Amino acid sequence: MPRGGNNRIPPSQHLARGTYRKDRHSELPTDPITPPPLAPDPPTALTDRGRVVWDRLYPLVTSQGIVTELDRYIFAAYCQFEAFYTEAAEHVRDEGCFKKPKRGESAEGVQHSKWYRLMRDSLAQVKSLAAMLGLTPVDRHRVTKAKIEGQTEDVTNKKPVSDLDRIADVRLLR
Protein backbone atom coordinates (compact mmCIF):
# COMPACT_ATOMS: atom_id res chain seq x y z
CA MET A 1 0.00 0.00 0.00
CA PRO A 2 1.47 3.40 -0.96
CA ARG A 3 2.32 5.70 1.85
CA GLY A 4 1.81 9.40 2.04
CA GLY A 5 -0.04 12.07 3.89
CA ASN A 6 -3.49 13.41 3.19
CA ASN A 7 -2.07 15.84 0.68
CA ARG A 8 -0.11 13.29 -1.35
CA ILE A 9 0.00 14.19 -5.03
CA PRO A 10 0.14 11.42 -7.65
CA PRO A 11 3.19 11.36 -9.96
CA SER A 12 1.06 12.32 -12.98
CA GLN A 13 0.08 15.57 -11.23
CA HIS A 14 3.72 16.30 -10.40
CA LEU A 15 4.52 15.78 -14.07
CA ALA A 16 1.74 18.15 -15.14
CA ARG A 17 2.96 20.80 -12.66
CA GLY A 18 6.59 20.37 -13.66
CA THR A 19 7.67 19.19 -10.19
CA TYR A 20 8.22 15.49 -10.96
CA ARG A 21 11.54 13.98 -9.81
CA LYS A 22 12.46 10.34 -10.41
CA ASP A 23 14.46 10.16 -7.20
CA ARG A 24 11.59 11.39 -5.06
CA HIS A 25 8.36 10.20 -6.69
CA SER A 26 7.15 6.77 -7.70
CA GLU A 27 7.53 5.64 -11.29
CA LEU A 28 5.14 6.89 -13.92
CA PRO A 29 3.03 4.32 -15.77
CA THR A 30 4.84 3.19 -18.91
CA ASP A 31 1.68 2.91 -20.99
CA PRO A 32 -0.59 5.85 -20.11
CA ILE A 33 -4.13 5.74 -21.40
CA THR A 34 -4.64 8.54 -23.90
CA PRO A 35 -8.23 9.66 -24.44
CA PRO A 36 -9.36 10.21 -28.03
CA PRO A 37 -9.02 13.72 -29.45
CA LEU A 38 -12.02 16.03 -29.54
CA ALA A 39 -14.21 15.53 -32.62
CA PRO A 40 -14.48 18.68 -34.78
CA ASP A 41 -18.27 18.71 -35.08
CA PRO A 42 -20.03 20.58 -32.25
CA PRO A 43 -22.99 19.04 -30.41
CA THR A 44 -26.36 19.76 -32.02
CA ALA A 45 -27.66 21.45 -28.85
CA LEU A 46 -25.36 24.46 -29.36
CA THR A 47 -26.93 27.65 -30.65
CA ASP A 48 -25.50 29.43 -33.68
CA ARG A 49 -23.47 31.75 -31.45
CA GLY A 50 -22.25 28.75 -29.46
CA ARG A 51 -21.07 27.12 -32.69
CA VAL A 52 -19.15 30.26 -33.61
CA VAL A 53 -17.32 30.09 -30.26
CA TRP A 54 -16.70 26.33 -30.78
CA ASP A 55 -15.25 26.96 -34.26
CA ARG A 56 -13.03 29.76 -32.92
CA LEU A 57 -11.62 27.82 -29.96
CA TYR A 58 -11.54 24.27 -31.36
CA PRO A 59 -8.18 24.61 -33.17
CA LEU A 60 -6.54 26.12 -30.08
CA VAL A 61 -7.68 23.55 -27.53
CA THR A 62 -7.08 20.52 -29.75
CA SER A 63 -3.63 21.61 -30.92
CA GLN A 64 -2.54 21.95 -27.30
CA GLY A 65 -4.16 18.69 -26.20
CA ILE A 66 -6.07 20.50 -23.47
CA VAL A 67 -9.56 19.24 -24.37
CA THR A 68 -10.28 15.66 -25.43
CA GLU A 69 -13.43 13.77 -26.36
CA LEU A 70 -14.02 13.08 -22.65
CA ASP A 71 -14.40 16.84 -22.12
CA ARG A 72 -16.73 17.35 -25.09
CA TYR A 73 -19.84 18.47 -23.21
CA ILE A 74 -17.94 20.58 -20.70
CA PHE A 75 -16.31 22.38 -23.63
CA ALA A 76 -19.71 22.69 -25.34
CA ALA A 77 -21.18 24.20 -22.17
CA TYR A 78 -18.27 26.65 -22.05
CA CYS A 79 -18.94 27.68 -25.65
CA GLN A 80 -22.66 28.10 -25.01
CA PHE A 81 -22.19 30.20 -21.87
CA GLU A 82 -19.64 32.38 -23.65
CA ALA A 83 -22.25 32.90 -26.38
CA PHE A 84 -24.89 33.78 -23.76
CA TYR A 85 -22.45 36.24 -22.20
CA THR A 86 -21.76 37.91 -25.57
CA GLU A 87 -25.44 38.24 -26.42
CA ALA A 88 -26.32 39.60 -22.98
CA ALA A 89 -23.41 42.06 -23.10
CA GLU A 90 -24.73 43.43 -26.41
CA HIS A 91 -28.17 44.01 -24.84
CA VAL A 92 -26.62 45.63 -21.75
CA ARG A 93 -24.56 47.92 -23.97
CA ASP A 94 -27.71 49.00 -25.85
CA GLU A 95 -30.26 49.06 -23.01
CA GLY A 96 -28.17 49.61 -19.88
CA CYS A 97 -27.75 47.60 -16.68
CA PHE A 98 -30.82 48.75 -14.84
CA LYS A 99 -34.46 47.94 -15.34
CA LYS A 100 -36.78 50.89 -15.85
CA PRO A 101 -39.62 50.91 -13.33
CA LYS A 102 -43.06 50.15 -14.74
CA ARG A 103 -45.86 52.63 -14.47
CA GLY A 104 -47.02 52.93 -10.90
CA GLU A 105 -43.84 51.35 -9.46
CA SER A 106 -41.54 53.27 -7.20
CA ALA A 107 -38.29 54.38 -8.78
CA GLU A 108 -36.53 53.73 -5.49
CA GLY A 109 -34.50 50.56 -5.22
CA VAL A 110 -32.34 49.60 -8.14
CA GLN A 111 -33.22 46.51 -10.11
CA HIS A 112 -30.82 45.00 -12.59
CA SER A 113 -32.15 44.14 -16.01
CA LYS A 114 -32.60 40.49 -17.02
CA TRP A 115 -29.78 40.92 -19.53
CA TYR A 116 -27.40 42.15 -16.86
CA ARG A 117 -28.30 39.18 -14.65
CA LEU A 118 -27.79 36.78 -17.58
CA MET A 119 -24.44 38.39 -18.36
CA ARG A 120 -23.31 38.14 -14.72
CA ASP A 121 -24.44 34.51 -14.36
CA SER A 122 -22.93 33.51 -17.71
CA LEU A 123 -19.61 35.06 -16.77
CA ALA A 124 -19.56 33.06 -13.54
CA GLN A 125 -20.20 29.85 -15.50
CA VAL A 126 -17.56 30.74 -18.12
CA LYS A 127 -14.97 31.32 -15.41
CA SER A 128 -15.81 28.04 -13.68
CA LEU A 129 -15.78 25.96 -16.87
CA ALA A 130 -12.62 27.66 -18.16
CA ALA A 131 -10.84 26.69 -14.95
CA MET A 132 -11.99 23.07 -15.34
CA LEU A 133 -10.71 22.94 -18.89
CA GLY A 134 -7.44 24.75 -18.17
CA LEU A 135 -8.27 27.73 -20.38
CA THR A 136 -7.19 30.39 -17.90
CA PRO A 137 -3.52 31.32 -17.45
CA VAL A 138 -3.61 30.33 -13.78
CA ASP A 139 -5.24 26.94 -14.34
CA ARG A 140 -3.53 26.04 -17.61
CA HIS A 141 -0.50 24.45 -15.97
CA ARG A 142 -2.68 22.44 -13.58
CA VAL A 143 -4.47 20.50 -16.30
CA THR A 144 -2.78 17.39 -17.64
CA LYS A 145 -2.49 17.61 -21.39
CA ALA A 146 -3.32 14.67 -23.60
CA LYS A 147 -0.43 13.27 -25.61
CA ILE A 148 -0.47 14.73 -29.10
CA GLU A 149 0.42 12.34 -31.94
CA GLY A 150 4.04 12.62 -32.92
CA GLN A 151 5.10 14.25 -29.65
CA THR A 152 8.34 12.60 -28.52
CA GLU A 153 9.89 15.30 -26.35
CA ASP A 154 10.37 14.47 -22.67
CA VAL A 155 8.32 16.98 -20.67
CA THR A 156 9.61 15.99 -17.24
CA ASN A 157 10.47 19.05 -15.12
CA LYS A 158 9.56 21.53 -17.85
CA LYS A 159 7.24 24.46 -17.27
CA PRO A 160 4.41 24.28 -19.81
CA VAL A 161 4.14 27.24 -22.18
CA SER A 162 1.45 27.02 -24.83
CA ASP A 163 0.12 29.04 -27.72
CA LEU A 164 -2.74 30.08 -25.44
CA ASP A 165 -0.21 31.72 -23.12
CA ARG A 166 1.34 33.58 -26.01
CA ILE A 167 -2.04 34.69 -27.35
CA ALA A 168 -3.03 36.05 -23.95
CA ASP A 169 0.44 37.62 -23.72
CA VAL A 170 0.94 35.96 -20.36
CA ARG A 171 4.45 35.51 -19.07
CA LEU A 172 4.73 32.42 -16.87
CA LEU A 173 7.20 32.73 -14.05
CA ARG A 174 10.14 30.42 -14.53
TrEMBL record:
Residues 32-43 have a biased composition (Pro residues). It comes from the Bacteria. Residues 1-46 are annotated as: Disordered. This is Phage terminase small subunit P27 family. It holds the Pfam family Terminase_4. The lineage of its organism: Bacteria, Pseudomonadati, Planctomycetota, Planctomycetia, Gemmatales.
